[in-house]
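Repro:
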Amino acid sequence: EVQLVESGGGLVQAGGSLRLSCEASGFTFDDDAIGWFRQAPGKEREGVSCISSSGGTTYYADSVKGRFTISRDNAKSTVYLQMDSLNPADTAVYYCWVPTPGPTDWWGPGTQVTVSS
């Protein structure tokens, strides 16, 4: 059974930092790209960042470029999202995501990030 478990969310003041983690199990972690989406209240889920299976290629949404850094530790089956210079617009539930060739991708349950002004 595939499991993606996020952690590291919380409440932080504007300008602060958080580091999200997503520990994966139930599949061959280093075979797959993995990434993060987020969903703010009343808004659609949006892609934030993703990283290739080897870690050599990364993608960032324009809204987080230069502030967020994605990384992965294949030995620990874990992906990280270092979030710096947070602002209230970053407030959202953050979801770990694995794209699959099947009809549905894999998703974690999400972790809440709240940035106060």
